[in-house]
Design a protein that fits this description.
Helix 7 packs antiparallel against helix 12, helix 8 packs antiparallel against helix 11 and helix 9 (221-235) crosses helix 10. The radius of gyration is 36 Å and the shape is elongated. By secondary structure, it is α/β, with parallel strands linked by helices. The chain has helices at residues 17-22, 27-37, 39-78, 85-134, 137-140, 143-155, 159-185, 189-219, 221-235, 237-245, 249-302, 307-348, 409-416, 439-445, 460-465, 475-484, 488-492, 514-526, 545-558, 571-574, 594-600, 603-615, and strands at 369-376, 386-393, 398-403, 424-429, 432-433, 446-449, 533-537, 563-567, 579-584, 587-592. The structure holds adenosine-5'-triphosphate. Adenosine-5'-triphosphate binds next to helix 13.
Length: 616
Amino acid sequence: MAHPHGSAPPKSQRLGLREFLGVFQYSRRAVELVWTTSRLLTVIIAALTLIGGLMPAAAAWVGQKIVDAVVEGAAISAQGGVPDLQLAMGWVALEGGIMVVLSAVQKGLNVCQSLLRAMLGHRVNVLILEKALTLQLSHFEDSEFYDKLTRARREASSRPLSLVNRTFGLVQNGISLISYAALLLAFSPWAVLVLVIGGLPSFMVEAKFSGEAFRLFRWRSPEARKQMYLETVLAREDYAKEVKLYGLGPLLLQRYREIFQLVFSEDRKLTLRRGAWGFGLGLLSTAAFYGAYAWIAFAAVQGTISLGEMTMYLLVFRQGQSAVSASLSSIGGMYEDNLYLSNLYEYLDQGIEAEAGTAIEGPRPGEGVRFENVSFTYPGAKTPALSKIDLHLVPGKSLALVGENGSGKTTLIKLLTRLYEPTEGRILLDGLELSEWDPQHLRTRVGVIFQDFARYQMLVGENVGAGDVDHFSDEQRWREAAELGMADDFVQDMPAGYQTQLGRWFKDGRELSGGQWQKIALSRAFMRSQADILVLDEPTAAMDAEAEATVFEHVRNLTADRMAILISHRFSTVRSADHIVVLDHGQVIEQGDHTGLMANGGRYARLFTLQAEGYR
Ligand SMILES: Nc1ncnc2c1ncn2[C@@H]1O[C@H](COP(=O)(O)OP(=O)(O)OP(=O)(O)O)[C@@H](O)[C@H]1O
């Protein structure tokens, strides 16, 4: 949720019972997730939980038997008789046995839970990433959606297991509690009531504050994202150069600190209030316990119960009380887990418009690409980035787009590659609208490099191979593409040739120059040998003039029956295109070939002459 920096977090709302229960809607999905992650581990955990639940009451009962046997034995000894030693020793041995089982159960639970935790964390991360693959570019550019993604990634992976553990914990404590109650009932039903009611106040506090903590977490997720971003800028190699030279470090670090202060001051308030209330209401539980203690001791003094029974009741009452508070805090924790899971599921359930097209050919093959009255406005933007564009790109021809920064050239390519849909008008390939094409097939027909192409910290060869996933690791194809993209020569000279690691993140990683990276990106586009539309968005800006000339020679040779779209600010390159389109503020203001446009004496002619003069 976007909010102006520094605004106060939302006030806590009163939590009605319905709202409280409604929040548990994700429990079923979380249990399902855990169950499908590992049935075996889930079953073992459930079984151990049940066994673990019965053990404490059994131990308390045996404890009573020990004390009574000892008291009885002592009385016999006092009267000069011979007590039955074996009986008391037998009970002690049994209690020892129960403790061994209990500790085995607890260890087993820990082991299973850590295994399941690792598996589940991985599973949830994969779910999150799989979903990310289905998202559209516009999602990544939407800050509110990005918050959802960040929140899901930060908290969600540990929550399903925690929820399931707490559910089991609740069952376990429930079983213990029932067995304690059964023992305690013999003393007095009222004692059972005191036991249960004593735990309620602390529970109310937990429920109230976990809701508040969650609202705080949601409120500050844009802050958390800013902090993550600053961490990236301050600690990553690709920013280090500028941060150092411009001395940005202290300023950015100060920002980082300020965000922490803002977030921490809210956290501190909440933590203090939570602690104070927890302590105050916790006193009630202590009072309930000592009230019951006095009552039980009184009964023993009066002789209504034996010493053994008194020991057992006290133990049962104390443990019962912790079972009550553990159960209630399990419920509170489940509530909290559910709140955090709502983030995960909100993100996973985000509706994605299906890319519905299925066509793999159009009615007029060979017609090429047509833009018909195409307009486009970015989500949230006030003015259109493109308006009323009409264009026809014919196979075998090349098209150059020129225009000032921000005139809409890259946007036009984003529409052609279906990263965005036109807000108005339509784009046709072979006579069929782009949205009706099978998206996979459409992608194989277009090879594109953007000016901000990705620099993967992988092998040089893989950086080329990325252009065609089917041949991602095919060294022969890497070479062919790299020759066309002018990268082969310098790659051969690298220490491990095509197997050289790029980037500084990993061992022995090499860095490339700007022009070399561009050659890699160009080669990547040449990997798309099936593509009949080749789009180069300022591909040669960092290359030297000779390399640029050769690359265009290659593009021209390739485009016998293909289409090439070229964006460039270098008119020496642009002039060789068959058709030139001049964009200004999202509109086509001139088009034609170089000679025609020069003869026109319009914007193109002016810009061309200006640049040509610069070279004289
Ligand atoms: N993701 C985006 N969201 C909102 N507006 C955008 C986005 N990308 C670009 N714009 C806006 O759309 C307009 C056209 O941008 P575009 O990137 O198409 O220009 P360009 O002609 O390729 O510029 P350049 O020569 O600088 O590469 C600009 O005003 C820009 O601010």
